[in-house]
Amino acid sequence: MEKPFRKILVIKMRFHGDMLLTTPVISTLKQNYPDAEIDVLLYQETMPILSVNPEIHALYGIKNKKAKTTEKIANIFHLISTLRANKYDLIVNMTDQWIVSLLVRLLKAPVRISQDYSHRQSAFWRNSFTHLAALNGANVVESNLSVLAPLGLKSYVTHTTMSYNPDSWTRVRDALNSAGVDERYVVIQPTARQLFKCWNNEKFSQVIDALHDRGYEVVVTSGPGAEDLACVEAIVKGCKTAPVTALAGKLSFPELAALIDHAELFIGVDSAPGHIAAAVDTPLVCLFGATDHIFWRPWSTNMIQFWAGDYRPMPSREHRDRNEMYLSVIPAEDVIAAVDKLLGAPKAASTEGNA
């Protein structure tokens, strides 16, 4: 499809990590259509993770389910008016919410591409798009890129991107200096949105003690929620020497990226910070439970991944108990051995600002 697209809208409404995993699609579009303005429609709460990406012209936020009905209606009408005025000539959709089919009809872009979802086969949905692309790929990055197949592109960008401005690192470095942290530090983010993605607090404490024994400072981060901060506090109580927690719950996503980018190592569970570590090429140890550890793994070649399924049978998605801590079968000793292996290899050079 040889068209000089100038105004492109990418639609993806998922969580923070999912949004970061769409960046290869954005980069591929920018590489093939360098003069195009690429906008992204996403949930308002996930906008910060893409807020500094230089390949994105504008972000448009849609309110999620938690918003009041009146707020959501007003938000939708405002978005429709704004997006129609932009006069897109290409829409690339990677979300399966039903409202997208109505939205793209109202925007009237001449080329409207969507992934072909098995549960969205109504005539209204299918006819809302000019092209439907089969979902292909063993990993979510490859699956996302498959939406571009109808364009017949000759080159693809296959790495994820997490960007931050230099002043984000300046603020983080000042905070680290205040906490007495030198250049040899490891970042651990132990928290996740759901319990079935979490690991035992006492095992994180063991790993932190092992890192301190090896001469590394440990910086523990988390989200700002009360449960996340309580998890950090419990881990600290189990440590012989307390890690640095001054940044927990206080970092923006660009600041978290700067912190992880300059770290010797990142350790975490199945959550967005692990994907950030992969995007900035920081070595990482990641722990997965009952989720698909192949499809959803961080997009990195500098990683040791643990999957609870290697230690005990894992239930299928439909039989998953979201209140069970599946990762608890992973021994702290195995994670510490992985840490020793990765810390023996030097980190690749950082590309500050657009890693």
Brief characterization of the structure:
With 355 residues, the chain is of the alpha/beta class. The protein contains 12 helices and 11 strands.
Key traits:
single chain; 355 residues; alpha/beta; 6-stranded parallel β-sheet; 5-stranded parallel β-sheet; 15% strand
Structure description:
- The protein is an alpha/beta fold and 355 residues long.
- It contains 12 helices and 11 strands.
- It has helices at 16-20, 23-32, 69-86, 99-107, 123-126, 140-145, 166-178, 201-213, 226-237, 253-261, 272-279, 332-343, and strands at residues 7-11, 37-43, 58-62, 90-93, 111-115, 131-133, 185-189, 217-220, 265-269, 284-288, 303-307.
- The strands form 2 sheets. Strands 3-2-1-4-5-6 form a 6-stranded parallel beta sheet, with helices on both faces. A 5-stranded parallel beta sheet has the order 8-7-9-10-11, with helices on both faces.
- Helix 8 (201-213) crosses helix 9 (226-237).
- The radius of gyration is 21 Å and the shape is globular.
- Mean pLDDT is 94; it is low at 346-355.
Please specify the SSE layout and strand pairing.
Elements lengths: L6 E5 L4 H5 L2 H10 L4 E7 L14 E5 L6 H18 L3 E4 L5 H9 L3 E5 L7 H4 L4 E3 L6 H6 L20 H13 L6 E5 L11 H13 L3 E4 L5 H12 L15 H9 L3 E5 L2 H8 L4 E5 L14 E5 L24 H12 L12
Parallel strand pairs: 1-2, 1-4, 2-3, 4-5, 5-6, 7-8, 7-9, 9-10, 10-11
Helix pairs in contact: 7-10, 8-9, 8-12
